[in-house]
Design a protein that fits this description.
This protein has 317 residues and is an alpha+beta fold. The chain folds into two domains: 13-118, no CATH class; 120-317, Exo-inulinase, domain 1 (Jelly Rolls), CATH 2.60.120.560. It is built from four helices and 16 strands. The protein has helices spanning 3-9, 15-65, 79-88, 246-252, and strands at residues 103-108, 113-118, 120-121, 127-130, 140-147, 152-162, 168-176, 183-192, 198-206, 213-220, 223-224, 255-264, 271-278, 281-290, 299-305, 309-316. Strands 3, 4, 5, 6, 7, 8, 9, 10, 11, 12, 13, 14, 15 and 16 form a 14-stranded antiparallel sheet that branches. The longest helix is centred in the first third of the chain and has 51 residues, at 15-65. The chain starts with a helix and ends with a strand.
């Protein structure tokens, strides 16, 4: 048989097969792009942290060499001008800025050091508020709030964040000052009026109530109601110790993670169910409550009273 006839007798590639190959190549390319984008962002984040360390090291050297005693960077008002001093003195080659998305490198007047802020919105629409950013203008707040190098501090105040979700989880990392009174709270399923008066619910870590308690309270127009019966965990349980004991005093003055999960009640479309964890320990998961809040008017937030609280992060998923 003529070899040319053999070649001509073979079938060519169909259009469908060609399209399938193109689609597969596109999928592989898309996956590679996502992976490479994530790796690039992680690399930028690590580079930012390295730059912050360098800035703090050379600033400390600059202070020692010039015999400064707290009177440095007083005449500067921007981070770029502060870095420019280090450039002019030969400590760094040029001013730097954060490379990671939604990040910033800034001088903290509270801690007298260079600090790093990273506030991101994840691809799964979760919102992660890391309270180490000196700019708190995006929060609705009243009372006293102070931005430190790694936390947002308040001894008395309210802070609210938009939460346009019907089912969600709120995770807060916070630490109370050493004391035997006061506490902090986390708002959920809450609405605000034009005067920032809230109506809804709050979960409270209340050190001054019944020796130390985890409480759920209703709130109406900015005023709290009594703790809801049957959902108070106090010194009789194994998770939350009594504040008057040595162990309890230390526990209440330590950093803890409080997580709230709000879900639609499968037995009633107008009701929802709240579950609460402390440091991964499930406290309860059967608190059913009525609500008429719609996602577009829903808020979460924080409340402090009678003692200082350091808030490190608040994540909504």
């Amino acid at each position: 048989m003529d070899w040319r006839n053999m070649i001509n007798s073979k079938k060519g590639v169909t259009l469908i097969e060609l399209l399938a190959v193109i689609v597969i190549i596109g999928i592989i390319a898309g996956i590679s792009l996502v992976l490479s984008t994530g790796l690039i962002e992680k690399t930028r984040y690590k580079a930012d942290l390295a730059n912050v360390k360098i800035l703090n090291d050379v600033t400390e050297l600059y202070i020692q060499v010039n015999g400064l005693n707290g009177a440095y960077f007083e005449e500067t008002t921007t981070d770029e001008s502060r870095m420019q001093i280090l450039v002019d003195e030969g400590y760094i080659n040029k001013t730097v800025s954060a490379m990671a998305k939604d990040a910033s490198i800034y001088w903290s007047n509270d801690s007298f050091c260079w600090a790093y802020s990273l506030n991101t919105v994840a691809e799964d629409t979760s919102t992660n508020y890391v309270f180490n950013n000196p700019d708190t203008s995006s929060y609705l707040k009243s009372g006293t709030w102070i931005s430190n190098a790694n936390n947002l501090y308040s001894s008395y105040g309210l802070l609210f964040l938009d939460n346009p979700r019907s089912e969600y989880t709120i995770t807060v990392e916070a630490k109370l000052d050493a004391s035997s009174v006061g506490g902090y709270g986390i708002f959920f399923e809450t609405t605000l009026d034009p005067n920032m008066k809230d109506t809804g619910y709050i979960v409270q870590m209340d050190r001054g109530y019944n020796g130390g308690s985890l409480l759920i309270r209703p709130r109406t127009n900015g005023t709290e109601g009594n703790p809801i019966s049957g959902f108070r965990y106090d010194s009789t349980n194994s998770i939350i110790p009594r504040v008057s004991t040595t162990e309890g005093y230390a526990w209440w003055s330590s950093q803890h993670e409080v997580k709230l999960k709000i879900e639609i009640d499968p037995n009633s479309a107008s009701d929802k169910i709240l579950s609460v964890w402390i440091d991964g320990n499930l406290m309860f998961d059967d608190f059913s409550f009525s609500t008429s809040v719609i996602p577009s008017n829903n808020f979460t937030g924080l409340r402090s009273w009678r003692t200082g609280t350091e808030y490190y992060s608040l994540k909504i998923t």
